[in-house]
């Protein structure tokens, strides 16, 4: 028996017990362990027992790395974007357990990704889609427009809000950025938003005439059914009777009195009406002028009564 015990002792690395004692001392002196002992005086008796080495060591490692957090991308934790949290054991009244939970940086990142997924767009640059109200300088010439946009977001109720905004003013004053900030704010509240740059979108639809592709039809249906639709730079497109009457008309007809639409334009509402009346093919058919004017008025009747007209002023920020 004695020789067997001697053999067992020989298998134990030299100074094992001293190193073990040093580890236990290090654990006991760790600020996190001190915090846990103060917070849970009845649940921390076994924290330095050998059976807890693994989970305690992992917990302390996460605490140390999180205390010197280098940011989400450079996170050094084994499970990136997670932190170790302490919780009372669900059944053992004298024990603690440690769980990995998403840290605030990962939650914020995932929330931002979700916002991006709730904002669909066609031909809108990223700096517009990522705009926020905090980014927009509230200079006097556009302060009322920003206030109207913020009010729209704060008062928006899915399924109930039907009135949108018509933001109009000179080029470069920030109408699109205000609209982009609306999209961001609503997406944070889980509202699906679709923002479309009208000239390029209508050109795409026009190029698809006759093909009746499912992709184009799906896009048109998305415009008809989005909880909030933003039509950016309406009036800048080269309008034809077909795009006016067969594309814009049905979209707005479907949305009016049901779903809010937000517009940005360089044109006043009366100038927009004239723009729709002067469809390219109207110039070739002078005899149909009155008919084109009536159809233009019909489009305006689907816009003006269902929006708040909001002027946007200020300097042209594209020119510095």
Summarize, please.
With 320 residues, this protein is α/β, with parallel strands linked by helices. 48% of the residues lie in helices and 13% in strands.
Largest β-sheet summary: 6 strands, parallel
Total domain modules: 2
Ends distance:
91 Å
The helix fraction, in percent, is 40-55%
Shape: elongated
Radius of gyration: 32 Å
**Strand adjacency order, main sheet:** 3-5-6-7-4-8
What is the fold-level CATH name, i.e. the topology of the largest domain?
Answer: Rossmann fold
Uncertain runs are: none
- Average of the residue pLDDT scores: 87
Number of helices: 13
Name of the CATH homologous superfamily of the largest domain? P-loop containing nucleotide triphosphate hydrolases
- Judging by the overall fold, what is the CATH architecture of the largest domain? 3-Layer(aba) Sandwich
The number of distinct β-strands equals 8
Portion of residues in beta strands equals: 5-15%
Give, in order, the helices and strands: HHHHEEHEHHEHEHHEHEHHE
Structural class: alpha/beta
Pfam families: IstB_IS21 (PF01695)
Protein name: Primosomal protein DnaI
InterPro entries: IstB_ATP-bd, P-loop_NTPase
Organism: Paenibacillus medicaginis
């Amino acid at each position: 028996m004695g020789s067997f015990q001697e053999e067992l002792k020989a298998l134990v690395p030299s100074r094992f017990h001293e190193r073990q004692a040093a580890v236990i001392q290090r654990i006991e002196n760790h600020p996190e362990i001190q915090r846990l002992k103060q917070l849970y005086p009845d649940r921390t008796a076994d924290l330095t027992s050998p059976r807890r080495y693994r989970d305690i060591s992992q917990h302390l490692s996460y605490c140390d790395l999180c205390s010197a957090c280098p940011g989400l991308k450079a996170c050094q934790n084994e499970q990136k974007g997670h932190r170790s949290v302490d919780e009372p054991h669900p059944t053992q009244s004298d024990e603690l357990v440690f769980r990995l939970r998403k840290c605030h940086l990962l939650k914020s990142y995932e929330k931002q990704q979700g916002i991006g997924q709730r904002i669909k767009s066609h031909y809108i640059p990223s700096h517009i889609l990522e705009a926020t109200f905090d980014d927009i300088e509230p200079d006097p010439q556009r302060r009322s427009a920003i206030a109207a946009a913020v009010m729209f977001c704060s008062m928006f109720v899915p399924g109930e809000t039907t009135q949108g905004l018509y933001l109009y003013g000179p080029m470069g004053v920030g109408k699109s950025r205000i609209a982009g900030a609306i999209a961001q704010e609503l997406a944070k509240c889980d509202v699906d938003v679709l923002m479309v740059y009208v000239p390029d979108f209508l050109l795409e639809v026009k190029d698809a005439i006759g093909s009746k592709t499912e992709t184009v039809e799906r896009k048109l249906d998305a415009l008809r059914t989005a909880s909030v639709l933003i039509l950016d730079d309406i009036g800048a497109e080269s309008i034809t009777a077909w795009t006016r009457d067969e594309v814009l008309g049905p979209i707005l007809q479907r949305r009016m009195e049901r779903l809010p639409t937000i517009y940005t334009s360089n044109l006043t509402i009366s100038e927009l009406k004239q723009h729709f009346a002067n469809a390219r093919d109207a110039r070739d058919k002078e005899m149909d002028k009155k008919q084109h004017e009536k159809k233009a008025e019909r489009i305006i009747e689907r816009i003006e009564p269902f929006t708040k007209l909001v002027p946007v002023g200020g300097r042209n920020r594209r020119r510095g």
